[in-house]
Amino acid sequence: MNNSNQVLETVVNVVEQVDGSASSSSIKHYNSEEKVKSEISLLNGFSYEQLNYMIRKSAHFFEYAVLASLIGSLLHCYRYTWMNRIIYALFMVLLCAILDEYFQSFVDGRNSSVKDILIDFSGAIVGCLLLELMMITKIKIKSLFLSKVSSYKKC
Q1: Looking at the predicted structure, is the pLDDT value of residue 24 above 60?
Q2: What is the reported pTM?
Q3: pLDDT at residue 133 above 50?
Q4: Alpha carbons 85 and 150: distance in angstroms, whole number
Q5: What are the DSSP calls for 42-55, one per residue?
Q6: What are the Cα distances from residue 70, in Å, to 53, 86, 92, 108?
Q7: Is the Cβ–Cβ distance between 129 and 94 less than 8 Å?
């Protein structure tokens, strides 16, 4: 059986188990939750906890990449140079990540981690680099287009 059929079969099993547990007692619900976790752990050989961890950290990486690119875009509107845009955006995002972890340390059941700050900051770096890459590409396309338009006017 190929991978796509195995994944489809796993999803069907998970849906059947969740639907069956909706009207049952809490013990059955707990058992079906454990079955769902074990079915999910079959996907690519990762445990449920590992998949949960990877998805949460990837979401943080992506959120901070978007935040950095939005801040960079805002600074571009105010005509900051590309280097200042990157420096200011990274500084603001780093400050947000540090404050997020600091406030998280006061929440019961949560802890703060330098690793989380590094994941967030690396997302910000990628966001800034992608933004600058898009801006460079936009400028090159725009100049190429304008040079072609100006050559048509000369004819």
Answers
A1: no
A2: 0.67
A3: yes
A4: 31
A5: TGGG--HHHHHHHH
A6: 26, 11, 11, 31
A7: no
d(CA 130, CA 136): 10
Q: What average pLDDT score do residues 104-132 get?
A: 94
Cα–Cα nearest to 70, from 119, 126, 122, 127:
127
CA distance 71 to 66: 9
CA distance 123 to 59: 10
Name the token pair of 76. Answer: 């571009």
* Distance in angstroms (rounded) separating the CA atoms of residues 42 and 64: 30
Q: Helices 48-77 and 26-41: crossing angle, nearest 10°?
A: 70
User: Tens digit of pLDDT for each residue in 40-67?
Assistant: 655 667 777 888 889 999 999 999 999 9
Query: What average pLDDT does range 77-94 have in this prediction?
Result: 94
Structure tokens at 113: 């981690």
Q: Determine contact, residues 120/93, Cβ cutoff 8 Å.
A: yes
Tokens of 86: 């990157």
